[in-house]
Amino acid sequence: MARIWLIARHEYLTNIRRRSFLFVAFGIPILTIAITMLSVTLIFNKDSDPRSLGTVGYVDLAGVLHKQIDQPDYFRAYDTEAAARAALDAGSIGAYYVLPADYLKTGNVSVVAKTDIPSALGNAFDAYLRANLSSGLDAQVVKRLQDPVEASIRTLNDGRVMSENEIGGLFVTPIIFMMVFLFASQSTGSYLMSGLVEEKTNRIMEILVTSVTPFDLLFGKIIGLGLLGLTQLVVWLGGGYVTLTLSHNFSFLSAITIPPDLALVAVVYFLLGYFFMASVMACLGVIVGSEQESRQYAAIFTFGFVIPVLFITSFISDPNGPVVTFLTLFPLTSSISVLLRMSFGSLPTWQLIASMVILLLTGLFVAWASARIFRWGLLLYGKRPSLRQLIRVVRRPPSMATSATGEQNA
Amino acid sequence: MRAIYVEHISKSYGSFRAVKDLQFEVLGGEIFAMLGPNGAGKSTTIRMILDILKPDTGRIEVLGGPINDATKDRIGYLPEERGLYRSVPVLEMMVYLGTLKGLSAAEARRRSLDYLERLGLAENAKKKVSELSKGMQQKVQFAVTVLHDPDLLIIDEPFSGLDPVNTLVMQDLLLDFKKRGKAIVMSTHQMQQVEEMCDRLLMINKGEQKLYGKVDEVRQQYALPAVRVEGQGDWSKLAGVDHVEASENGHQATLLYLKPNITPDNVLAEIAARADMHIRAFELAVPSLNDIFVQVVTGDAQHG
User: Fold this and answer.
1) pTM, whole model, 2 decimals?
2) Which of B43, B87, B88 sits opposite A404 (nearest CB)?
């Protein structure tokens, strides 16, 4: 038993040093953070700062702003357009608005500036206008005029309550999870498979099987690489957290919050899904001859992650329909489906439990069958066994096959 | 001590009988050669001893009983087609494989450094395996095999691909193991090495036992009723000689087949008594293992 941990430790330590792992695990989050910071400083800050043009003038020919209610300190009134123009040319203001005499009738406002107007400045001027136009009305009415709709979205079926800003998160959270799942499990799964292919190709397998049992080898590898995948997951979620904190000004991104219950279920599903997938990958690793070929089979799992996202509209419009229920329970697609439904808040508890149990049982069964094929195929070279042969191996395990004589004893 | 005891084992793959009723034993403190042409069933036999394969019939004892996880830790096995983790530093890989054989990490590390030193590879400890030459890799593989100081060493083709210097290094290591009472089984095609190093041999062909016993005795078994001489003279004039034949291996040597009841000593005395004959070399016509091997395999063995 102690050797399982030796193998797990070895797998973890050798694979964590792979360049491809380091790139995917650390490079991508660092890149994401860098890009976010860049866009925040370059685009967003400029646009969101109403003072970026300095003082802004206005010429009120319509006579609606004479009370100067709530005037921001960087607004300055000018009596004539010519005076404002002179100030702009002199550089003492960055732009000026002109309210023509017929403003109340037409609503026309012109703005004169040498550069683009940040959208935040437009909003600030709007708010200033509203405050003055509504003077004399009841304070509550004024407030409602300023912000007439504060929506809170209640998703169907007793779901989560989220405010207007959070709708982005509704879609983004599960998709981010899907990406993280996909990368983490794909990379660790393919390390598992390519490691086995390598050990078979360079015949170190013969030494391994005379040192440890196939069971130790299989589960040592699954545990070691599972911890690797978990490491990647943690790095990514940490990176995601940093990104969100940095980009707090983005109302769109800051809405992506990860509720703790969702995170917990995500980790449980990651581990269950990984166990299921790793068992199959290990099995494929010993029977498939080349690493290239093994990658093609690994693509099946990618489909499992992607299919629920293709049905995303069903998840919203018909969350209790047969398609969604099937995807929730089917072990290949359940991880992402459950996360999708939990973030939309429409997952009945019995389905969550049923889906977990199904995934766990399938995982255990597949691991059991894989262990038999794994033991049988460790020293098999050359001809790939047929499906019928594999089924026979699972049902009635013979001893290991070898290719010492070019024949197989299944 | 009996390191291996194989009792009437047979193994078939489908209708192909890879091993038929083999019976032999390997003792502690001996180097035991397992010989046979490719596909004779050597690998299958070794794999059955190592419990990778189960024999269909028969029984195998290893280090005093049926093989189990504890005895596996006392076996060192170097397969014929050997490999190492290519992208892992040498020392780290040795420590890993050593711990899989039950050594503590510290002990595995100490012994690995020790072996690397002995094999002249000390400065390569931190290098990746793929950066080593083929000969170096082979020495590392050997070190990995013996790191846990096994009581039974099973090595497939220990000298293939080694230069003469490294062959000597490897021979010394094996002889050292033998001196310490360990059992060594080596499967090889290099008959020269068997003649030089091995105490006993087993030769199988098509899964069946052909020869088994002490190397010298097996060779004696195949000795011709003849002597091989080098020198000058008309050897056919000798009274004790039946007929003369040019020796196949030996530049100027001649094979003198003896008449019944004539011993080599009689012939030697006769030659010494004659003035018209001079000998430079005189030896019994014991065939090399190589000749015996070819004879057995081609199926026309002439027992003498």
Assistant:
1) 0.73
2) B43
